């Protein structure tokens, strides 16, 4: 049994870091995990994505065609990945960066105004944390606390003053419980 | 040691350092550059040699020089850079000095792209340089294996005075997985008796690949060949999954092997009795093991991220006893498990064929479906 | 019968310890023998035989390792400076020398020597310039003079088609990493003595870790030039030296202070 998550957005939105954080949390919980960044021309194309797979056995393919969950941090990511999510999967959309709602009716989707929330919390760079919080509350793969512990364990000491703000943003995002769009 | 979340390229670099690496020479090329960067940072801090060479040609010849001193030495590159190193590899093999090479393969031929591929199989396994020589080629599929095989590569290179290659594709180089690094081994302080280190209190040592007298050259070739037979007898490595009752066998190495594992699991869930054989040593190749599988397997499927290079070695092992089918992606495209699952279903439906060449049948299916 | 007793003190000239007692494969009159001898003498005089590793190249000097009695490795064509880099970085307290011809160093191996010099690699290159490819039978080299006939420039080197000869010492002297780059000639005893002194300085530069050193030695190839050894020596003096002036092209400030 495995859970696949794709996090996608513009370079600079903290997409790769959010995925790595998830991977650290999974590892610390004793799970198997793979993290693989987008690979190929996209690397330089202004968009970034990574795939995280969390499992309880040796992981085969690090890439999947149909992930269980997607965080779409911008419109191109929503356009690209919405159609690929497994039926009944989770879609977390950064409402601040898109001009439409998800179209599929067989997903558990949630619109989160990530940029506005992060700005209100005091640091726009925390948008990824808000959306990660929203993912975890809707996807039973890891508790939010596991990610908080991973931040504490793996964030370099010089950044530890940012821990409380990270926690707050994760928790704020976790208030966004998805409902089936229809 | 605890598990750490490690990126393939960096894990290999640190594993090499902990295996007692004394000198690294390299040249930047995507997707292995993190390996060189890790060395640039770590080697000087440990008081060990690091040089960013002027080219891959320079790098491999620096490796050649350092290897002649008997030091633990390595370089790393990616496909086009490896092509450039072929001159040095032939010389190193002929001089019978140990060296480790890491090839993080990318799409080709030519400049190709920087996406993951397995198209250096032939160049590494069947020799890209001139002359009769073999290299030991180890193909990891996980970060942990990449670490373990890097350490093993040094030990095997020294044991057999041979080149040992760690062959992986760019996706594994860029991927992160939890893995455990080995403890730091002390750097060896002595040099082997054959090494060129200065003729103090002994006869001079001359390390060369020239045997101008043909019978002498033939003798050198025979020596290499006998050593290779020894390697073939001792160093075959592979891993099997779901093979106990398998009637169909998928063969894939490295990343293609792990993608195939996902497909095999899905096929098992559908009730198809299929197993996976993942060669870890591509050279020496698990020929006898695959041949033995013909007793119970009805058909084979070879999966690669190239146009069917290992396929030929599997066909030689199967030797016409069972049908062999092929599925490949090329040019930097990684297959998804569902593509391989589709091929496994074909095997289970009895569609494996003896007719013509598996590559031709695959191409026909490919163009037929497009 | 008169028996003369020879006492050791009377020996004024003998084979250097660093040379193997054997006949070389070099042609009669070839100056490789002179170059070998002065290098071996200096290595003996400096007490370096047991601490030196030579890197042989491809060309007539491919078998240099058969003639020098210390450790050697054999490089692919042109790659000796890269290989020497590998040896030196692992064994920084040993002396590492390369012995390369003009085709090897100034054509196929130009990249390797330029970058070794640019890195200030602490090695010594002995560069034998005889204005042609000797081993393969006298083809045009990057050092072949304008108008000079070779088997691959049968009507004389046409600079319109084949370009101009490369002055390697002058070129390498532009690099900051090079500490000592000089050109000498092996055509008469006076110049040979000067060449030997340069060999000594170059090895001293390396011993003291001052950076890259190279001694270019203008040499003759009577066989491929189609001349007697004497004619060849004269041709070197008259034709080669005007194009390749003997001199010191780079002597870094720290080298200038050396007392050799």
Automatic annotation (TrEMBL), chain A:
<dbReference type="InterPro" id="IPR019752">
    <property type="entry name" value="Pyrv/ketoisovalerate_OxRed_cat"/>
</dbReference>
<protein>
    <submittedName>
        <fullName>Pyruvate:ferredoxin oxidoreductase</fullName>
    </submittedName>
</protein>
<keyword id="KW-0670">Pyruvate</keyword>
<dbReference type="InterPro" id="IPR052554">
    <property type="entry name" value="2-oxoglutarate_synth_KorC"/>
</dbReference>
<feature type="domain" description="Pyruvate/ketoisovalerate oxidoreductase catalytic">
    <location>
        <begin position="11"/>
        <end position="175"/>
    </location>
</feature>
<dbReference type="InterPro" id="IPR002869">
    <property type="entry name" value="Pyrv_flavodox_OxRed_cen"/>
</dbReference>
<keyword id="KW-0560">Oxidoreductase</keyword>
<dbReference type="GO" id="GO:0016903">
    <property type="term" value="F:oxidoreductase activity, acting on the aldehyde or oxo group of donors"/>
</dbReference>
<dbReference type="Pfam" id="PF01558">
    <property type="entry name" value="POR"/>
</dbReference>
UniProtKB/TrEMBL annotation, chain B:
<keyword id="KW-0670">Pyruvate</keyword>
<protein>
    <submittedName>
        <fullName>Pyruvate:ferredoxin oxidoreductase</fullName>
    </submittedName>
</protein>
<dbReference type="InterPro" id="IPR052368">
    <property type="entry name" value="2-oxoacid_oxidoreductase"/>
</dbReference>
<dbReference type="InterPro" id="IPR033412">
    <property type="entry name" value="PFOR_II"/>
</dbReference>
<dbReference type="GO" id="GO:0016491">
    <property type="term" value="F:oxidoreductase activity"/>
</dbReference>
<feature type="domain" description="Pyruvate flavodoxin/ferredoxin oxidoreductase pyrimidine binding">
    <location>
        <begin position="14"/>
        <end position="185"/>
    </location>
</feature>
<dbReference type="InterPro" id="IPR009014">
    <property type="entry name" value="Transketo_C/PFOR_II"/>
</dbReference>
<feature type="domain" description="Pyruvate:ferredoxin oxidoreductase core">
    <location>
        <begin position="246"/>
        <end position="340"/>
    </location>
</feature>
<dbReference type="Pfam" id="PF01855">
    <property type="entry name" value="POR_N"/>
</dbReference>
<dbReference type="Pfam" id="PF17147">
    <property type="entry name" value="PFOR_II"/>
</dbReference>
<dbReference type="InterPro" id="IPR029061">
    <property type="entry name" value="THDP-binding"/>
</dbReference>
<dbReference type="InterPro" id="IPR002880">
    <property type="entry name" value="Pyrv_Fd/Flavodoxin_OxRdtase_N"/>
</dbReference>
<keyword id="KW-0560">Oxidoreductase</keyword>
From TrEMBL, chain C:
<protein>
    <submittedName>
        <fullName>Pyruvate:ferredoxin oxidoreductase</fullName>
    </submittedName>
</protein>
<dbReference type="InterPro" id="IPR051457">
    <property type="entry name" value="2-oxoacid:Fd_oxidoreductase"/>
</dbReference>
<keyword id="KW-0670">Pyruvate</keyword>
<dbReference type="InterPro" id="IPR029061">
    <property type="entry name" value="THDP-binding"/>
</dbReference>
<dbReference type="InterPro" id="IPR011766">
    <property type="entry name" value="TPP_enzyme_TPP-bd"/>
</dbReference>
<dbReference type="GO" id="GO:0045333">
    <property type="term" value="P:cellular respiration"/>
</dbReference>
<keyword id="KW-0560">Oxidoreductase</keyword>
<dbReference type="Pfam" id="PF02775">
    <property type="entry name" value="TPP_enzyme_C"/>
</dbReference>
<feature type="domain" description="Thiamine pyrophosphate enzyme TPP-binding">
    <location>
        <begin position="59"/>
        <end position="203"/>
    </location>
</feature>
<dbReference type="GO" id="GO:0016625">
    <property type="term" value="F:oxidoreductase activity, acting on the aldehyde or oxo group of donors, iron-sulfur protein as acceptor"/>
</dbReference>
<dbReference type="GO" id="GO:0030976">
    <property type="term" value="F:thiamine pyrophosphate binding"/>
</dbReference>
């Amino acid at each position: 049994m495995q859970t696949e998550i794709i996090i996608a957005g513009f370079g600079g939105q903290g997409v790769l870091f959010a995925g790595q954080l998830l991977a650290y949390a999974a590892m610390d919980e004793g799970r198997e995990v793979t993290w693989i960044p987008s690979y190929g021309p996209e690397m330089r194309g202004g968009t970034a994505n990574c795939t995280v797979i969390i499992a309880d056995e040796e992981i085969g393919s690090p890439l999947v065609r149909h992930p269980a969950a997607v965080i779409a941090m911008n419109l191109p990511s929503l356009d690209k990945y919405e159609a690929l999510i497994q039926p009944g999967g989770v879609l977390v959309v950064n409402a601040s960066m898109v001009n439409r709602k998800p179209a599929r009716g067989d997903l558990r989707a949630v619109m989160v105004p990530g940029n506005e929330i992060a700005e209100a919390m005091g640091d726009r760079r925390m948008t990824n944390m808000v959306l990660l919080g929203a993912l975890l509350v809707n996807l039973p793969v890891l508790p939010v606390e596991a990610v908080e512990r991973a931040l504490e364990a793996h964030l370099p000491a010089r950044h530890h003053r940012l821990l409380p703000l990270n926690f707050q943003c994760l928790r704020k995002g976790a208030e966004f419980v998805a409902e089936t769009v229809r | 040691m605890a598990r750490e979340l490690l990126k393939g390229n960096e894990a290999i670099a640190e594993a090499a350092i902990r295996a007692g690496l004394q000198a690294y020479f390299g040249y930047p090329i995507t997707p292995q550059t993190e390996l060189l960067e890790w060395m640039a940072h770590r080697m000087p801090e440990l008081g060990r040699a690091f040089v960013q060479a002027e080219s891959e040609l320079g790098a491999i010849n620096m490796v050649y020089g350092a290897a002649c001193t008997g030091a633990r030495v390595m370089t790393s590159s990616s496909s086009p850079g490896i092509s450039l190193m072929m001159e040095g590899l032939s010389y190193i093999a002929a001089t019978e000095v140990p060296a480790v090479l890491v090839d993080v393969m990318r799409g080709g031929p030519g400049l190709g792209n920087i996406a993951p591929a397995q198209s250096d199989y032939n160049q590494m396994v069947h020799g890209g340089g001139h002359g009769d020589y073999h290299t030991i080629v180890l193909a990891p599929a996980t970060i942990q294996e990449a670490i373990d095989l890097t350490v093993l590569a040094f030990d095997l290179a020294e044991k057999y005075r041979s080149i040992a290659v760690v062959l992986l594709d760019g996706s594994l180089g860029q991927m992160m997985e939890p893995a455990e690094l080995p403890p730091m081994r002390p750097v060896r302080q002595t040099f082997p008796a054959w090494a060129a280190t200065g003729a103090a209190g002994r006869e001079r040592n001359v390390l060369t690949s020239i045997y101008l007298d043909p019978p002498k050259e033939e003798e050198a070739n025979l020596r290499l060949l006998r050593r290779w037979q020894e390697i073939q007898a001792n160093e075959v490595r592979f891993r099997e999954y779901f093979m106990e009752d398998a009637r169909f066998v998928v063969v894939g190495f490295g990343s293609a092997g792990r993608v195939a594992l996902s497909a095999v699991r899905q096929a098992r869930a559908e009730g198809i009795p299929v197993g996976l054989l993942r060669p870890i040593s591509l050279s020496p190749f698990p020929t006898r093991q695959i041949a033995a599988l013909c007793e119970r397997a009805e058909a084979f499927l070879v999966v690669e991220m190239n146009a069917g290079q290992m396929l030929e070695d599997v066909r030689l092992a199967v030797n016409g006893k069972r049908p062999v089918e092929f599925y490949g992606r090329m040019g930097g495209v990684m297959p998804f498990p569902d593509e391989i699952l589709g091929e496994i279903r074909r095997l289970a439906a009895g569609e494996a064929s003896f007719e013509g060449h598996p590559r031709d049948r695959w191409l026909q299916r490919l163009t037929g479906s497009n | 019968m008169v028996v003369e007793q020879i006492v050791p003190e009377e020996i004024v000239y003998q084979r250097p310890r660093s040379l193997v007692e054997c006949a070389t494969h070099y042609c009669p009159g070839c100056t490789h023998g002179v170059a070998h001898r002065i290098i071996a003498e200096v290595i003996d005089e400096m007490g370096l035989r047991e601490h030196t590793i030579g890197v042989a190249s491809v060309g007539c000097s491919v078998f240099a390792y058969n003639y020098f009695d210390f450790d050697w490795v054999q490089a692919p064509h042109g790659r000796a400076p890269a290989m020497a880099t590998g040896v030196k970085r692992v064994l920084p307290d040993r002396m590492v020398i390369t012995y390369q011809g003009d085709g090897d160093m100034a054509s196929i191996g130009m990249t390797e020597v330029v970058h070794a010099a640019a890195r200030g690699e602490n090695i010594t290159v002995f560069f034998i310039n005889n204005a042609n490819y000797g081993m393969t039978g006298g083809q045009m080299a990057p050092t072949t003079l304008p108008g000079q006939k070779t088997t691959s420039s049968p009507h004389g080197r046409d600079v319109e088609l084949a370009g101009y000869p490369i002055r390697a010492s002058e070129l390498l002297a532009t690099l900051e990493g090079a500490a000592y780059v000089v050109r000498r000639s092996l055509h008469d005893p006076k110049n040979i003595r000067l060449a030997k002194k340069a060999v000594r300085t170059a090895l001293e530069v390396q011993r003291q870790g001052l950076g890259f050193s190279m001694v270019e030695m203008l040499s003759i190839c009577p066989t491929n030039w189609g001349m007697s050894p004497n004619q060849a020596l004269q041709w070197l003096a008259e034709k080669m030296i005007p194009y390749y002036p003997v001199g010191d092209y780079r002597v870094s400030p720290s080298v200038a202070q050396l007392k050799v």
